[in-house]
Structures are given as structure tokens and as C-alpha cells.
Amino acid sequence: MNKDDERKRFEGIVAAVDDAILAATPAEIAEELRALDIDPGAAAAGMRARVEAAVRARGKRLMRDAAEQARSGRGFQVISGGAQLVANDPRAKLARLLSRPGVPTTLAARDGRSMSDADVDSLIEDLAELGITEDDQQ
Amino acid sequence: MRVRGGIADMKTEIFSEDVRKAPGAAQQEEKRLAETPAGARDIASEDEVRAQLLALDDDALGRLELKAAAYRRMLPRQDADDLVNEALRRVLDGCRKWPKDIAFMAFLFATMRSIASEWLKRNRREVPDSQIGTGNDGEDGDSYLERQPAAGGGPEDAALFAKFADAVEEMFANDDDVMAVIIGRVEGLSAAETREKFEMTATAFGTAQKRLRRAVLAGRLDGWR
Question: How many whole angstroms separate alpha carbon A36 and alpha carbon A48?
């Protein structure tokens, strides 16, 4: 049996274990976590924290990528989904912040897709952490 | 009629060169994903993936923790701890696309499986000989694969995968129902197809899955070399 076959065999067995975990009842999941000395509530809370951290990290990477794209001189586009930008619109605020001196002046929407509201808010928060806010202009 | 006593023959058939003709469902899924032209399937957007992750309830999160616990029995501890984070990163970054006709948890598990397979090969080359055979069998955290000899690639990689599979086979050598569950998965059969092929009741299939799950989680693999 060659290497690829052995890998398929390995993954098939692990997949069977995966199926068994997915097929378990909620009570069995809790029971088996307890059998491993893992409190189900704490496990869920810990895993939720990891998910949320991963989502935040993704936002940071988007910002880093945006800055990188800005340095490469590509065009800036914060897509508003067709809505008119208004003064208190987070997207408008983000556009104003990013247009300020010392801040990347261009930001390309990745692959032409729009940024979500959460991404916009996250970027505004990240800029605030860097001391870039609109407060100092007022 | 149930094909008792035929598991060994089927193992020979499935766990042999014929496995190339009958790849497991995980492989089928990945192959299908790789070969399906873009746009032919309904692929989730980044926003949808993020929303799905943030909406996971305590039960789903518990299953993820249990999956991570199973990997602690198979991978070096650091890799097992990093595996969930790496899977989350890949799905959020879009490195792994979620076809929405696949259940999200099954997609997450398949992602983890793929990463584990990558890392398993890498680890073989990184585990120093000094960590092998230290006589601490059964100690928590001393995973099966951590004790495998570090060596070069090529045929040794295949041997590493084979050792794990052999260990599982040996564990359930006298449990036809569990072997049927495993063989069905390697063959790429659905649960219903496996039950039909091996003439298993739903209860027998479910309890066999439970025995497989609990054996791996309990670390019984750790007793083997």
C-alpha cells in the first residue's frame, strides 16, 4: 500500500471517529467530557473564547492586509452596499479616518467584496487603539 | 444475513491496494470540493462563516472540545492544542471554503482532519529520537504518535499512517460492529448504506460508534507501539 493509500486509510478511520462524535447525543457529549475531567460548561466557554479570538484576529489581518494594499498604492473602496454615506455612518467615519494624514489613504475591498458592519467597527476600534480618532479634530 | 467473520476479508479488500478504488468519504468530499468548478456549489461567504461560528451553541462547542481531546490522543500535545485555532483561521480566512450543503460541524471536523493529516507527516520528521521509547506508557499526554520514531519521509510516512490504522484495527479485531463502522467510512458509505451492507440495526450501529469514540477518547491507543 502506498503513502496516499495509507493516508486515506488513516483519514477514513479518523472520519469514523468524527462521525461518532457528531452522532452523540448532547447528554453523551457532556458525559464524555466529564469522563475526561473536563467541565462541559467550562469547555463551551473556553471554546467560545477561542472562536471569538479567531474572529478578532481575522479582523486584525484584514486591517494589516488593507495597510499593505495601501502601501502598494492600490485604489481605495469601502463599499457601502449602495447606501448613501452620512455623517454618523460608520463606513463614512472609517473613510474619513483612513483619509487622514499618516493613515493609509487607500483601502481596497478584498476581492471586490464588501466589508461587513462588524469589520468596519473593528477597523474603527483598531484605529482608535492607535490613537487615530475624530475627537482630536474637533 | 449478517456477514460475521467476513471482516478480515473485507479488511484485506479495503485496507489494501483496493483502497484507491474506494476512498473514504473524507477523501471523496475533499476531492469533490477540489474538482467542482467554482460557482457550481453554494459556497458560504466570509460573513456567513463568521456568523455560523459565532452562533455555535454550547453543545456544538462541547463537540469541538471533545474532538480536540481525541486529537490529543493522536498528535503531539502542542499540535493538538493548536489544531482548533488553525482550523478556525483557515475557515475564517477562506482557505477552506464551506459548501453550504455540508453541515457546518462536519465541515469543521473535516478541516481539522485535513490539518491533522498534514501535521502528522510533519511531526514524524520533528520528533527527536530521545523522546521515543521513554517507558512512560499510559501517562497523560504521551500520545501514540509522539512515540513513533522520527525518520525521513517517503515510505516512512506511509508506515506512520499504517501504524495508527493498524492500532485501531487491532483494538477492535474482535468487534465486528466497530470494524463495520470503520470499513463503511473508509469505503465512503453513508451510515444507512453501512447498516444495510452489514445488516446492522440502528442501535447496533450507534453503540458501535460509541465504543469507537470512547476507546479513542480514553486513550487506549496509548498502550500500543
Answer: 19
CA atoms within 13 A on the CB side of B216: 30
Contact between B181 and A3 using a beta-carbon 8 Å cutoff: no
∠A29-A35-A40 over CA atoms, to 5°? 50
pTM score of the predicted model: 0.66
The residue extents of the domains of chain A are 60-133
Mutate which of B31, B213, B216, B224 to test chain A, going by most A C-beta atoms within 10 A? B213
Inter-chain residue contact A10 with B117, CB threshold 8 Å: yes
Cα A15 to Cα A7, A36, A39, B84, B217, distances in angstroms: 12, 21, 25, 16, 14
List per-residue pLDDT tens for chain A, 138 residues long: 666 777 778 888 999 999 999 999 999 999 999 999 999 999 999 999 999 999 999 988 888 887 777 777 654 555 544 444 455 677 777 777 776 665 544 443 333 345 677 777 777 777 777 666 776 554
Chain B segment 13-72 residues within 8 A of A by beta carbon are 15-17, 19-20, 23-27, 45-47, 50, 53-54, 56, 58-59, 61-67, 69-70
The alpha-carbon gap from B204 to the nearest alpha carbon of chain A, in Å, equals 13
